Structures are given as C-alpha cells and as structure tokens.
Amino acid sequence: MITTPEQLVFELPHRTAMGLEDFLVSRSNEAAVDLVDRWPDWPIGAAVIAGAKGSGKTHLANVWLSRANGKAFEASAISRDTVPAVAASGAVLIEDIQRASDEAALFHLLNLVREQRLQILLTTDTAPGDLPITLPDFRSRLKALPLATIEPPDDALLRAVLVKLFADRQLTVEPQLVDYVLVRMERSMLAAERFVAAADRRALALQRRVTRAIAAATLDALGY
C-alpha cells in the first residue's frame, strides 16, 4: 500500500518564519533557532550564525530580521562611507561576513552596538575563528560574539526535508523509498533539493510515480 506524504512526516518541530516556508528544527540547527528565539535578550546586541550554504541560516536570519524590523546588507557592500547609514537602521543583518571587503568598517559597526544600542546579526559560512581576518581588533571582537553553528543535517532532519520536498511537489512516495535515498545521497540540504527535483523530472518524463527504480537512476545520475 502506498503511503501519502502526510503519513511520512516525522516528529520535528516546525518554525513558521513570518511569511516564509516552515522551518524544520532538529539537533543540528536547534542552537541557531534558540539564538534567534532569545533575541532581544542577547547579552550584547550582536551575534553570529555560522553554517554552510543551504543550511538554513539565511532563513533564520530573515526570521530575526522580521522580528527586529531591521534591514539586511551584504558584508561586501559595507564600507566606512556606508557605516552611518547602515547604523541608522537600528537593527542590521550583515550577511556573508566571509566576503567582507572592509574589515575596519565592520569593526566600527560592532563598536556602535553599545554606543548607539545597535542590534546586529552576522552570518557566515565559516566559523569566525577560521576566517582569514587581517585586522586583529576585528578578529578579537568577532570571536567574542555569541555564536550558533548550524551543523550538517542529521538523519531526522534530512528525512523530514525529503518528505517535505516530495510533498511540496505533490509527489506520493513510500516510506521505504525515503530511507533508501537517505543512506545513499550526499549529506546536505542542497543535495536533498537536487535529488527531489531530478527525481520529479525523471518521473514526469516517464509518466510514472517516483519508484525505487527511478530513485536509484536519479541517484546514479547525480553521482551518488
């Protein structure tokens, strides 16, 4: 008997993100979720979320941005000239600090946290301590900020993500198929998205539902 995607849902909390899609919470990302939840009761007005591309850090950062009624800026666009206008926002999301081109400008922004009661959330794909920062004061200040790291997805999260991605495309799959894919695919959220999209295309081309044979062919085509 074929089981519907709704019957495949695993018991993971959902976090609705102010008009964005539901966010699935597991041990791999709960520290970052907790960091966002604790705002505005952060010990200082700044914090960092680190995680690989596709890990969900942008989603969580936008949850915070909506709550804080702030503005988002790319770290690469921050310069000494733009700092006053950025700080005037009151609450600021600085994305991808690994791409910063003006470390002194970002250091100045962090200095304004206390002076102007500025609220700042920074995101990075690399832990602050591993970033190739040349300005010692900025490195020290950054490493002192509260940090939440989104770890690689665990089995519970990847399984739930696969179920959700199939359901989003109105695809009916068996529970055993999800488990079959889970142990063979790359361990990342982006890999899950690529697999479901490719399996959907293959099933449509063959005018069949997503079977184990289609899943196996898709995994093989993706190099898994």
Explain how this protein is built.
The chain is an alpha/beta fold. It has helices at residues 30-38, 57-68, 83-87, 103-115, 136-143, 155-168, 175-182, 189-206, 212-221; strands spanning 14-17, 20-24, 46-50, 71-74, 91-95, 119-124, 147-149. The strands form two sheets. The protein has a five-stranded parallel β-sheet with strand order 4-5-6-3-7.
Provide the structure class.
Answer: alpha/beta
Sheet with the most strands, sense and barrel status: 5 strands, parallel
Number of helices: 9
Q: What order do the SSEs take from the amino end to the carboxyl end, as H and E?
A: EEHEHEHEHEHEHHHH
Biggest sheet strand order reads 4-5-6-3-7
- The beta-strand count equals 7
State the oligomer: single chain
N-to-C CA distance: 28 Å
The share of residues in extended strands comes to 5-15%
Report the principal-axis shape: elongated
Poorly predicted spans: 1-12, 14-21
